[in-house]
Fold this sequence. Notes:
This protein is an alpha+beta fold. It folds into two domains: about 1-165, Ribosomal Protein S5, domain 2 (2-Layer Sandwich); about 170-300, Alpha-Beta Plaits (2-Layer Sandwich). It contains ten helices and twelve strands. The strands form two sheets. Strands 1, 2, 3, 4, 5, 6, 8 and 12 form an eight-stranded mixed beta sheet that branches. The chain has a four-stranded antiparallel beta sheet with strand order 9-10-7-11. A hairpin with a 6-residue loop joins β9 and β10 (about 265-270). α1 runs parallel beside α2 (about 105-120), α5 (about 185-200) crosses α8 (about 235-240) and α6 (about 210-220) runs antiparallel to α7 (about 220-225). It starts with a strand and ends with a strand. The mean pLDDT is about 95. Pathway: Isoprenoid biosynthesis; isopentenyl diphosphate biosynthesis via DXP pathway; isopentenyl diphosphate from 1-deoxy-D-xylulose 5-phosphate: step 3/6. It comes from Actinomadura montaniterrae. Pfam families: GHMP_kinases_C, GHMP_kinases_N. Its EC number is 2.7.1.148.
Amino acid sequence: MRVRVPAKVNLQLGVGPIREDGYHDLVNVFHAVSLFDELTAEPADGLELAVEAAPYSRVAIGRVPTDARNLAARAAVLVASRLGVEPRVRLRIRKAIPVAGGMAGGSADAAAALVACARLWDDRERPALSRDDLMEMGAELGSDVPFALLGGTAIGVGRGERLTPALTRGTFHWVFAAADGGLSTPAVYAECDRLRDAAGESAPRPSVAEDLMTALATGDAKALGAALANDLQPAALELRPSLARTLNAGRDLGAIGALVSGSGPTCAFLAETDEDAADLAVALDGAGVAEQIVRAQGPVPGATVL
């Protein structure tokens, strides 16, 4: 069973106050893009997991766990538990989504494992897992997993796991600059809190930006570029100052929108057309401001059986 699953970019990431459960209230406008991991699930005597970089990718996979800590392995165990079977499966992940890059690669792999294992262990003698079941299990695994199942463009609230599809017209053209090494998501959130405390600022209650939603609904790339926003960006720049150079280079080279993707350190650049994206990718690669430059389009579907 082979499943393809996309990366995401946060078109808006509004970070609110810390909740009693330790998470922040969020408003996330997720956008799935055509940068894919692929997961293959096959019957095995036990739970096995292997990770490799996709042939066209320079993704560093050395820090990806291949044991029970991996979110895809945890997803397989969760599906097995729900179905009352033993988690006897071999999982192979081919990664093109940057690791710890703010594009939800681990969550994407978990979503792929949920879909693949549910199909692999489907049996007419017991009820199959529904899409709603998988979404619920995804939220149990992590805040970004449900969106990797859904794909497209969607508004996420709460921890980001409660999703509403967003009206989006047309195709948007992206260039992503992946940095050497990752950033810890908890560390970036902690730095965001520290910066706010140091400035004497209280965390605002986030809300969806109307200009962003209008840009999506009308397919206006320039308006979307102007509306991109990420409350975690100052924290990511504080922890990785070199990202400011990457963002500035993209803007100088013609991007109509630029921001750090999620908790970083991948930087996302919006171009007006596919041709503009191709030119921007070549120029950024020549500028030497990132470990890898990749192009993608969005929105695309979520986890898909191939």
